[in-house]
Amino acid sequence: MAQFWKPGTEKPRLLDDEEGGVLFLSSSFSSSSSGYGYASIEKQRQRLPVYKYRTSILYLVESHATTIVVGETGSGKTTQIPQYLKEAGWADGGRVIACTQPRRLAVQAVASRVAEEMGVKVGEEVGYTIRFEDISNPDATRIKFLTDGVLLREMMEDPLLTKYSVIMVDEAHERSISTDILLGLLKKIQKRRPELRLVISSATIEAKAMSDFFQSSKRRRVSEGEELRPRLEPAILSVEGRGFNVQIHYVEDPVQDYVQAAVSTVLLIHDQEPAGDILVFLTGQDDIDVAVKMLTEEARSDGKHSSGLIILPLYSGLSRAEQDLVFSPTPKGKRKVVISTNIAETSLTLEGIVYVVDSGFSKQRFYNPISDIENLVVAPISKASARQRAGRAGRLRPGKCYRLYSEEYFVNEMSAQGIPEIQRSNLVSCVIQLKALGIDNILGFDWPASPSPESMIRALEVLYSLGVLNDDAKLTSPVGFQVAEIPLEPMISKMILASNELGCSEEIITIAAVLSIQSIWFSGRGVQRELDEAKLRFAAAEGDHVTFLNIYKGFLQSGKSSQWCHRNFINYHAMKKVMEIREQLKRIALRLGIVLKSCERDTQLVRKAVTAGFFANACRLEAFSHSGMYKTIRGFQEVYIHPSSVLFRVNPKWVIYHSLVSTDRQYMRNVISIDPSWLTEAAPHFYQQQRLNPIIH
Ligand SMILES: Nc1ncnc2c1ncn2[C@@H]1O[C@H](COP(=O)(O)OP(=O)(O)OP(=O)(O)O)[C@@H](O)[C@H]1O
User: Fold this and answer.
1) Pfam families annotated for this entry (predicted)?
2) What is the pLDDT of residue 322?
C-alpha cells in the first residue's frame, strides 16, 4: 500500500505553498453543496476571487483587443467572466459571447452551471455546442460555451465569426491542437475585425508567451477613427486567490503499480477520512476498468473496508447517461468514487468531491515525423496538470489531494508545462482544417508554437495521397471538401466516402463508430483467459474490424442486453456509446449524400474501404521472423500485433492498423488483413508501383 505522510504532520503542503506563494484562505465561503437558492448563488458569485476584479476586467476588455487573465484554478474565471461581459452589454444587439473549452464534458458542465446561476434554461440565453450536439438557440443564446474544435468548424461557415463580440479562450495553457489553431486564426480575424475582443484565460507560466504572441501583430497604418480602436498590445491581469485550501499529500517512496496504489488509497481514505467523495485520475479506459473492478470486488468480498462506496468510471468512451451519473448527488451515508481520465482535469466542479487521488500519469500522443509514427503513450503529467487535478478538490469546501509520487519528484523532476500538442501530433487533421478555412500557406501560418516542418510535409503528403489535396495543395472537389466536412480524422472520413462507392457504408459506419472509442472489450486483471475465449466467439479471420461487425450484430440480436455484454466480456457502456456515435454518423452520411447500404458481409469490400482510408498504415510480416515482427511499408519501422487483437499470433502477411501504442515495443491496435494490391489501387502515388512491386511479389 502507498505510504503517505499523515495529515497534521509537517509534511503536507497547502497548494500555494508549492511555489512558496501566498496562502489564501476564504473560510467565509459557504460550504453547503446543495439546495442553492437564487440569492445564495448570487452571494457565492460575489465571494469568488474574480469578483474583486470585475471592474478591471471590464475596463481592460473595453480598452484592449486582447486581455489575458491569469488566475488559480477555482478563482471563477470560466463561470463568471462571460456573465460579467453579458451584464456589461457585450451581448446586446443580438451579439454573442463565446467561451471555448478544450473538452466536451467541461462545455456541458459549465453551461449548466452558468445557466443555473443566471436562473435560465440551458439552450436559451446560455447555450452550448459540442461535436454532434447543439444546445443553443440562434435567436436567444447570448452566452455560448463550445469546444475550441467546434468554433473552428463554425469558421468554415462564417470565417470572421461575425456573430461574436467577445471570444474567451479558456484553459489556453493546455495548448491543445485546436486551441493553438484557434489562437492563430483569432489573431488573423482581429486584424479584419478590430472590434472583436479576445479574453485568453491561462495559467501564469504561459501568460508571457501568450502576450508575446498577440503583441507581435503587425501595426496597422493609423487611419481616421483609429483612436477609437482598442489598444493592440495585450493586457495581462492576474487574479489573486483561490477557493478553498487543498492539502497535498505525497507518497514517501515511488509506487510500483499506480492502479493498485490508487485503489489502496481510495480504501485508506474511505477508512480514515470523514465524508466526502473521491476523484481518482488514472490514464485511460483500460486502467479505469481495472480499478473499478478491483474496488467493486473489494466491496463484494469485504464489506468492512468498502461498504457504502459508489464506484463510477468516467472517460470519453462512456455514453452520455453514464457520464451524467458523476454529477448526480451522492445519497446520504454513501461515498462516491469517480475514476477518471484527464477529462475531469479542467473546468469541472463535481459537487461532492473532497479528495483527489492523482496517479501522476495520463495518456498522451507522441508523433515522430521521421518514422511517421504516432503513439498513444502513458506518460508523466506536468506540474500544471497536477495543479489542475488537485484543484478539483476544494471547490466547495477544503479538500485533500493524494499524489501517488514523491514530493521530491514533483519539485525536481516534473516538467512545469507539457509540450504543446501541436508539436507532438500527427498534423493531418490540423492541415485539412486550415485548408478548409482557405489558409493556403500552412508553413507560413502564425502559430503560437510552430510545429515541425517535417510533420507538416508528412501531413500534406498523406492528404495528397488520400485525394483530399490537389497538385496545388488545395482541397479537391468533391472529396477534399467532403472529408473536411466530416468531423472525424480524415482517414476515417475517407474510409466512409470509399464505402459509399463500394456499397458497404452500413458496415463501415459501424466500424468508424467502434474505432472512435478506446475499446469495446472489458479490461480486467486476472480475466485474460475468459476474455480470450470470449474473443474467439466473435473472431473473424480477416481481423478486428470484421470482428467488430460480428459483435455489433450479436449485441443487436441480444436486444442490446447488458447481461449479454457481461457474459461476453464486452463493455456495455462502450457499446451504448457506439450506438450513439453510429446514429450521429448516419446523419452526417445522409447529409453528404452517402447512400446507406449493406454489402451483406462481403468482407473484401469492407477491407477495401478500410484500405482506402488507412493505406498509410500498411505493414508486412518480416519473412524470416518467428516473433511476429512486422515492418511498416513507409519508414520500415518495427511493429507487432497487439495481444488484444484477434490477429495476435495469427500474423497474416499483410496488415493495416488503426493506431499504435508503445509499451516495451510498438504495438498495432485494431488490425485487419489485406491484399497488398489494394494499396496501389487505393493510393498509387503513395505506394509508387515500382517501389512496392518487388515487395508484393
Ligand atoms: N456546478 C457547480 N456547482 C457548484 N459550484 C460550482 C459549480 N461550478 C462552479 N462552481 C463554483 O465556482 C467556482 C469557480 O469555478 P470556475 O470554473 O469558474 O473557476 P475557474 O477559475 O475557471 O477554475 P478552473 O480553471 O479550474 O476551471 C468553483 O470553485 C465552485 O466553487
Assistant:
1) DEAD, HA2_C, Helicase_C, OB_NTP_bind, WHD_HA2
2) 80
| CATH number of the CATH domain containing 365 | 3.40.50.300
- Nearest ligand 1 atom to the CA of 50 is 21
Given a cut of 60, whether residue 171 has pLDDT beyond it is yes
How does pLDDT run across 530-579, given as a tens digit for each residue? 888 888 899 999 999 999 999 999 999 999 999 999 899 898 988 998 99
Q: What pLDDT sits at residue 323? A: 84
Atom nearest to 388 CA in ligand 1: 26
CA-to-CA separations, 116 to 38, 121, 668, in angstroms, rounded:
9, 7, 46
Mutate to test the pocket of ligand 1, among 107, 113, 244 (most ligand atoms within 8 A of CB): 113
DSSP alpha helix (H) spans, 225-284:
258-272
Dihedral of the CA atoms 203, 208, 434, 175 (nearest 10)?
-30
- In angstroms, the CA 369 to CA 459 distance is 9
Strand segments, DSSP code E, in 269-334 are 277-281, 309-314
In the reported structure, the alpha carbon of residue 76 is separated from the centroid of ligand 1 by a whole-number distance in angstroms of: 6
Distance (Å, rounded) from C-alpha 305 to C-alpha 291? 15
pLDDT-based confidence at residue 205 (cuts at 50, 70, 90): low
Residue 347 in contact with ligand 1 by CB distance below 6 A: yes
CA of 145 to the centre of ligand 1 (A): 15
242 lines ligand 1 (CB under 6 A): no
> How much distance in Å is there from the Cα of 206 to the middle of ligand 1?
21
Q: How confident is the model at residue 524 (pLDDT cuts 50, 70, 90)?
A: low
Question: What is the span of the domain harbouring residue 453?
Answer: 422-483
Is 2 a member of any domain?
no
Give the residue from 419, 446, 462 where a domain finishes: 419
Q: What is the 3-state secondary structure (H, E, C) of 547-582?
A: HHHHHHHHHHHCCCCHHHHHHCCECHHHHHHHHHHH
Given ligand 1 and candidates 168, 277, 324, 349, which is best to mutate, with the most ligand atoms within 8 Å of its CB? 349
CA distance 282 to 359: 6
CB contact at 8 A, 619 and 632? yes
Cell of 372: 511517421
Distance 288 CA to ligand 1 centre (A): 25
Q: Whose CA is nearest to atom 7 of ligand 1?
A: 349
Q: Verify whether ligand 1 is closer than 6 Å to residue 346 (CB atom).
A: yes
Q: What's the rounded Cα separation, in Å, for the pair 180 and 186? A: 10
| Pocket flag, ligand 1, residue 283 (CB < 6 Å) | no
Q: What's the complex ipTM?
A: 0.96
371 plus 490 within the same structural domain = no
Nearest to 319 by CA among 571, 590, 588: 571
Residue 291's pLDDT is 94
Q: Is the pLDDT of residue 399 over 70?
A: yes
Q: Which residue in the block uniquely carries the three cell numbers 512486422? A: 630
The alpha carbon of 302 and the centre of ligand 1 are apart by a number of angstroms equal to 36
Pairing outcome for strands 133-135 and 164-169: unpaired
Q: Which amino acid is at 420?
A: P
Question: Does any ligand 1 atom lie closer than 6 A to the CB of residue 102?
Answer: no
Q: 243 CB less than 6 Å from ligand 1?
A: yes
Q: Are 307 and 335 in contact (CB under 8 A)?
A: no
The answer to whether residues 211 and 198 touch, using CB atoms and an 8 Å cutoff, is no
C-alpha cell at 645: 487483437
At residue 9, the pLDDT reads 36
Domain boundary among 483, 500, 521: 483
Question: Are 104 and 251 within one domain?
Answer: no
Mean pLDDT, all residues of the chain: 86
Cα three-residue angle 160-177-447, rounded to 5 degrees:
65
Q: Is the CB of 74 under 6 A from ligand 1?
A: yes
**Do strands 133-135 and 126-130 pair parallel, antiparallel, or not at all (unpaired)?**
antiparallel
